[in-house]
Amino acid sequence: MVASVASAATVHGRVDNVPEDIVEYHQQRNIVVANDANYPSRISLEVFEIGKPEPSLVPVFGDYSFTIEDLKPGNYSMLINSYDFALNQARLRIDVDEDDSVEVYPDDYVLGTNITAAVAGTSEDPVVLSVISVKNFYETPKGSLMGLIMNSPLGPVFKNKWLSGIFIASLSMLLAPKLLEIFAPEVAKSIKEAQEEVNRERQQEREAKLARKAQQAKK
């Protein structure tokens, strides 16, 4: 596919293959979707000019179309993510020439190769992203603590048994003294006194060693 010229370096695109029964799908499973099931608003689209850290946020319209405007000559990376759908592409490369011609293609292509999958990003030759599946990680109305944990930043930790064990052991060591003070203050007091006694004995041993070294130095 030969790329055509995109007017004023504007890239047009859309997300297709969105399940028509998505609202019914979630209702049947008693799943609550934020923003009144406004699925397009739950698609995040960011455009970075390569070499510059600040992204431009691009809205996705109600018909799942989007328009990236005012692209200056240069190279860009487009990141797209949906809270509700898995897409066939999550990252695209946008190249804008000095004559405002545009090529958009998957970002895993090697530069300098024959890019047969490139599109121009015009209204006639838009960027098309397809939904390949529906994500299933929502919180139910009754609430699911485990679901919240597994979909939080700690999720990867709890999905790995070894990391889970280390995390739980570390957390237990941190919380144990406080829990003892609340539920077994006498036990906590005894442990604290024992620790203080051990610390005093260690301090006395250190002082005795220093005294012996001082006496040996005088001799």
What does this 3D model show about the protein?
It holds the Pfam family EMC7_beta-sandw. Residues 49-154 form the ER membrane protein complex subunit 7 beta-sandwich domain. Residues 195-210 have a biased composition (Basic and acidic residues). The protein has two domains: 9-134, Immunoglobulins (Immunoglobulin-like, Sandwich), CATH 2.60.40.10; 145-217, no CATH class. The chain has six helices and nine strands. It has helices at residues 22-28, 34-37, 145-150, 155-159, 161-183, 185-218; strands at 11-16, 43-49, 55-57, 65-68, 74-82, 85-87, 91-96, 102-106, 127-134. The strands form two sheets. It has a five-stranded antiparallel sheet, with no helix packed on it. Strands 4-1-9-6 form a four-stranded mixed sheet, with no helix packed on it. A hairpin with a 5-residue loop joins strand 7 (91-96) and strand 8 (102-106). The model is unreliable at 1-7, 110-115 and 139-143 (pLDDT under 50).
Distance between the termini: 93 Å
Structural class: alpha+beta
Q: Give the helix tally.
A: 6
Helix content: 25-40%
**CATH architecture verdict of the largest domain:** Sandwich
CATH hierarchy, class of the largest domain: Mainly Beta
> What is the CATH homology-level superfamily of the largest domain?
Immunoglobulins
Find the CATH topology of the largest domain: Immunoglobulin-like
InterPro entries: Beta_sandwich_EMC7
Biased composition (Basic and acidic residues): 195-210
Organism: Diutina rugosa (Yeast)
Protein name: ER membrane protein complex subunit 7 beta-sandwich domain-containing protein
